[in-house]
Amino acid sequence: xxxxxxxxxxxxxxxxxxxxxxxxxxxxxxxxxxxxxxxxxxxxxxxxxxxxxxxxxxxxxxxxxxxxxxxxxxxxxxxxxxxxxxxxxxxxxxxxxxxxxxxxxxxxxxxxxxxxxxxxxxxxxxxxxxxxxxxxxxxxxxxxxxxxxxxxxxxxxxxxxxxxxxxxxxxxxxxxxxxxxxxxxxxxxxxxxxxxxxxxxxxxxxxxxxxxxxxxxxxxxxxxxxxxxxxxxxxxxxxxxxxxxxxxxxxxxxxxxxxxxxxxxxxxxxxxxxxxxxxxxxxxxxxxxxxxxxxxxxxxxx
Length: 302
Fold this sequence. Notes:
single chain, Rossmann fold, alpha/beta, two-stranded parallel sheet, NAD(P)-bd_dom_sf, 7-stranded parallel sheet, NAD-dependent epimerase/dehydratase family protein
């Protein structure tokens, strides 16, 4: 089986790529802008005709699109998250119409949730941020293209390798810097928002199952923990792992995104039915792996 992974250098992409390379009989190729990529692809800029030429050369049985932008201005987000998937679908129709497309979407596409309620794939998507809106546009491009495609709507990923630009990675870096100094103070925004944190390793396993599942799949599947926890719980869990002895101070004003979306929780029933998938890593396991992965060289345990 020939699998082309786009966005392998990203957080999710790296874990997905590693997972797929362990598949018996799989030949995995990387597509992206990095010089070391097997196939040079820029979803934000390449014309569909050029993408089709690259896809014809790669001859994939499956394409996994992990490429995406989580930050930047609205134009950048639209180029990568909306225009990219649309161009990819157009190229696939021309060069590899039988290939399965697994595209990573985001729970941000749903927008604000109702406290105490899990959101299902059939619920209306009402994103309130440019990120969520552009990811939703990418999802529409995939689900409307007529290909053998599935969008995995991923919750808030956490676990080893979390980037410093996201909350788990940023908090980890702050705790590493603070050490066990009892006088240390972490000043953070409002941590009361609830999020559905899903381990990045569970996301990678869901992608593997989506790539290898026989027959057509539902157009969209939620990939999360199916449980919403306060962001405060994640921060305190990391602080406990770090042996942090200082103070954590929350300011009344948090991020604009948290203020607009105070609750996110996904119903993951459909993923279980279609893929036989369910998360196996709890939040405590995810935080332990994240903390261990950032230990100074020479102090990490296997």
